[in-house]
Design goal:
Blueprint (H helix, E strand, L loop, with lengths): L1 H23 L7 E5 L4 H13 L4 E8 L2 E12 L4 E2 L6 E2 L3 H15 L26 H5 L15 H6 L1 H10 L16 H13 L6 H13 L3 E3 L17 H8 L3 H12 L4 H6 L12 H4 L8 E3 L1 H12 L3 E2 L2 E2 L3 H7 L4 E4 L7 E4 L4 E4 L9 E7 L3 E6 L4 E7 L11 H21 L1
Antiparallel strand pairs: 1-3, 2-3, 2-15, 3-4, 5-7, 6-7, 8-9, 10-11, 12-13, 13-14, 14-15
Helix pairs in contact: 2-15, 3-8, 9-10
Length: 433
Amino acid sequence: MGLIRWGVTLLLFTLAFTYLPRLFSPKLKPHVDGYFHPKFRKVADTLRDNVESGKERGAAFAVYHHGEVVVDMWAGYADEEAERPWASDSMCIVFSTTKGMAAIAVARMVDKGWLDYKKPVAHYWPGFAQNGKGEITVEQLLGHQGGLVSLGANKTSLREYRDNQEAFTRRLEEVTPLWEPGTAHGYHAFTFGFYVDTLVRMADPKHRNMTQIFREEIAEPFGIDFHIGLPKSLVHRVARGHYMSPLESIVKSVQSWHLFNLFASSMFFPESFAGKALNVLGLKFNTFNDPDEMSIGQSAVLGIGTARSVAKLYSYMAMGGSIKGKQLLKPETWKMVTTSLRTGQDLVFPSLTSEWGRGVGFRDLPHPKYKGQKVIGHSGFGGQVGYFDPVNQVSLGYITNHASVHGLYDDPRFLDLEAAFYDCLEDYVRARK
């Protein structure tokens, strides 16, 4: 009984410490700004309602249709303590939504003949072949099939990855897969970035890193305001991140079995696949507000940009790889990116069925008007989302600096906006004809 009382007391103390200051802090004036096509007024109204109710505290939402902006809105505060409103160019860390953006950079390398999805990773990176990894192909690595979700017992850090690259590469080479590669898939939450970023550096003719490749092959030629490794000169544009403590995350996750299972596994069952995958980094989320941390290029978690930039890049994918004669990807490369590789139970998230392609995930649209249609992209920790809808030729981005426990397209704030958008889409398309 003493242990139970201690646990309940600790829980109550944590809840009081977390929520009581919010009750007595002064309310900031609701802030909503941006553009929306009149046919999508319901989206703007939904965003405003969420801000006024306190459900949304800082976010941006952008949508392209047929390569043109139809919604580009922002709301709440980039820094509540400084009373700095979210602005048109505010950015934030999008966590795993970065993986989808990096996958497009890899596809661009395939397009140029620098990589081949079907070849073994070891063709470009000979040291990778150690300990049963010699037959893992580029597409299997991108599709979370390699069994490389862990780096072993000792946690690492993003700074160690940046500052000791040669030693870190050897560490990656020495890892043994946790399952037979190609026979199953399990989400490589953090290691995706370490392996993919090393691969592209080995395969690139100039041996550029992912930060340089994304900037020179994607961001600059296509006008994409997104960075995998943020220049420190742009830090003033980044919204301050707000993150829950591990205990608060557990409490919040009880509303969803798969979320609770995920958080509990990572905390209490470190030998599970989820525990191994989510404990690669010795993370304190508040360090993501450090400009030095933001400058580290790591394509699993450290992409920083605007919602507009996410939607804009995916607008090329929604349109088959080209917009108005400007080509991001050739049709054959676009087809490979938009083709699924595996569907089934995820070994890291065993309560979920997931579907993966070459660095991007596939999701059924939940809207009743569009049942059976799939969107392609990547969600991210805290509620972030980026995807394209090739059937309706739609792309969207949602980013927030107030991280929730959600990260699998399931954040209620995003779902509200997505539902409002698809409620309006049919009328908008009809009006354009």
